[in-house]
Automatic annotation (TrEMBL):
Entries under InterPro entries matching the protein: Capsule_synth_CapA, CW_Biosynth-Accessory, Metallo-depent_PP-like
Species the sequence originates in: Natrarchaeobaculum aegyptiacum
Similarity field: Belongs to the CapA family.
Stated name of the protein: Poly-gamma-glutamate biosynthesis protein
Capsule synthesis protein CapA domain ranges (all copies): 4-253
SUPFAM superfamilies referenced in this protein's UniProt entry, alphabetically: Metallo-dependent phosphatases
Tree of life domain: Archaea
């Protein structure tokens, strides 16, 4: 059986989630999804907060939201779920200034959870994360176009920031550096995890489609997008799944009654060491009481219908297998 690698959208463990988790078991945040998560061979998530109790809220530019979680519970929670990689190139890793970013890197390192997309310098931020899913060696690069003031440079900590523009010289240089470093590890699967675009939009712009295809043409075997807080349609390009946005996996956000940012999927890729993808399964999820759960029948049906509708313009087709959607990878 091919190893199964899970991908989630945003995992935001701060604010009300952090408060609730201080009074309940550390794995409660994963709700009824915990068993499914633990049975995966690998798990990649966008960590949408810092893991620290230190620092002061970023004030150098206007930032309305600041997210951090107490590492005393948050790190064990990530371990219980079996998270292998945290993508850190996003718009919250400097919410509590550099001390909290450094705490986050240290806590993840101590827990043996790989990370990519942020570091002491841009050079560190472009380094890939690596893990093994069964007999499949995986490398993950993490990039963002959000919050340029959080960008790392040659001397300052921050994110692997780029404009999403295949013609931009800085973009091409940084992307090609990140991909080349990942390829040097000789992975069976190269993943690009991208925190891109604004909140609450329902489809990717053409520039994102061009960029995703550029990544696939340069050896990326799975595109893992997030940032919009709502899932987008799924495209298959040259046999490679492009998840333009995975939505939110867990958070405390206000729910839009039409866009339903509390509903998404756990994306599970079955792949092999020879680089052949077997299938991509989408398991519906929903957020309730600051925890993620397997979606109720009504929420699951809504999410499946919505994914089919959003994916139709890309020519992507699905079959139903129990509660999951199974994506055809013959695009």
């Amino acid at each position: 059986m091919s190893p199964r690698i899970g991908f989630t959208g945003d995992v935001m463990l701060g604010r009300v989630v952090d408060d609730r988790q201080r009074r309940r078991p550390v794995d409660a945040v994963w709700g009824s999804t915990l068993e499914r998560l633990q049975h995966l061979d690998g798990l990649v998530s966008n960590l949408e907060c810092v893991l620290s109790t230190r620092g002061t809220p970023w004030q150098r530019t206007y930032r309305p939201f600041h997210f951090r979680a107490d590492p005393d519970w948050a790190v064990p929670a990530l371990e219980r779920a079996g998270v292998d990689v945290c993508a850190l190139a996003n718009n919250h890793v400097l919410d509590y200034e550099t001390v909290a970013l450094r705490d986050t890197l240290e806590h993840l390192d101590e827990a043996g959870i790989a990370h990519a997309g942020a570091g002491e310098t841009i050079d560190e931020a472009l380094e890939p994360a690596r893990f093994a899913a069964g007999d499949v060696d995986v490398a993950v690069v993490s990039l963002t176009d959000n919050t340029p003031e959080y960008a790392a440079d040659e001397d300052s900590p921050g994110t692997a920031w780029i404009p999403v523009d295949v013609e931009d010289e800085t973009t091409r240089e940084r992307v090609e550096t990140a991909l080349e470093r990942a390829r040097e590890t000789n992975p069976d699967l190269l993943v690009a995890s991208l925190h891109w675009g604004p909140n609450m939009v329902t489809e990717p712009p053409e520039s994102f489609r061009e960029f995703a295809r550029y990544l696939v043409d340069h050896g990326v075997g799975f595109v893992h997008g997030h940032s919009a807080h709502v899932f987008h349609g799924l495209e298959v390009y040259d046999g490679v799944p492009i998840v333009y946005d995975a939505g939110d996996f867990v958070d405390d956000y206000r729910v839009d009654p039409e866009l339903r940012n509390d509903r998404s999927f756990l994306f599970v890729l079955s792949t092999s060491a020879d680089g052949a993808h077997e299938d991509l399964r989408l398991y519906p999820t929903e957020i309730d009481d600051c925890a993620v759960h397997e979606a109720s029948p009504g929420a699951a049906e809504w999410a499946r219908d919505r994914m089919r509708q959003l994916s139709e313009p890309f020519g992507t087709t699905f079959e139903r297998d129990d509660e999951a959607l199974v994506c055809s990878l013959e695009g």
